[in-house]
Amino acid sequence: METTYIESFISVAECGSVAEAARRLNITPTALAQRIQVLEQDLAIKLVARSGRTVRLTEGGTRFLARARQFQAEVRELRAAPFGEEYAGGLRLGAISTALTGLLPPMLKALIERHPNMNLTIEAGVSRDLYHQVLRDRVDAALIVEPPFPVPKSLMWKVVREEKLVVLAPKAMARRDPILLLSDMPLIRYDRHNWGGSLADQYLQQKGIRPRERFELDALDGILALVGLGLGVSVVPNWTAGKPLPADVVMLPLPGDPPSRRIGMLWPAQSAHGRVLKILLPVA
Q: What angle do CA 86, 87, 91 make, to 5 degrees?
C-alpha cells in the first residue's frame, strides 16, 4: 500500500472534492481518482461516494480516515528519526499573509542556519483555516492570530507579537481626531469574518461608531493602498513593525488603551517537531 495513496485519500476527505484535492496535490483529477480506487481495492472496502461534484465518506471511509491521519503523522516521525540533531526531515508551516513578510523570514533564517538540510513547506492562509489545518495535521505548526476562544489542551500556543489597533488615514488628515475620522469618513473595513478583522469590528461597536462602509477586504497591504488613494480610512492592527509607511498615508494612535491583535505560534502538544519549533520561537 503506497503511503502517497493514503495521503491522497486524506486530502480528498478534507476537501470534499476530487477536483479541489487534485489541484492542491498538483495532479489530475483522473490520476487522483485512480489512487483512491487502488486504495479501495487494497482495503476491499468503499471509502468515498460521489454526490455530484463533491464526495462524501462512507462509514468505512470515516473510520479509515482517523487511522490514516495517525499513520501519516507516524510516517513523518519515522522519516525524521534517523537524523537526530542534524534534522533533515520535513516541516510544514502555515502563516497568515502579514507573517509571511514580517515575522516568518528571520525565524526561517535561524532554523536553516541550525538545520541546513531541512525541507520546508510554507502554506499561506487565514487564521481560521490554518487553525483547522493544525487540528487536522495538514500543517505541523502555524503563525496565526490568537483564536477568539480557549485553545484546547491538545494544542500549544505561544504569543510572539502584539499589534495595537490604529487608524490609517490619508496624510492630509494627519491632524484630525482618529475617532471622528472613523465616524465621518468612508471606512475601508478589515474583513470582520476573520479574527483580526473581528477585533476591529468589536472596537467600533464598543465605541458606538457606525461607519459609512465603502470596502471590506482581508488584505492589510490592500487596505493601505486604498487609504493612500484617499478612498477612506481604516482601523487595523499595527502590523508594520516600525517599517516606513507610504508617503501618502499616516498611522494615528487610538486614545486610551486600544485592543491588540496577538500573533502567535500554534502546534500540537505532542508534536514530533517540538525541538525544531523551539528554535523558531525565540527569534520572534
A: 160
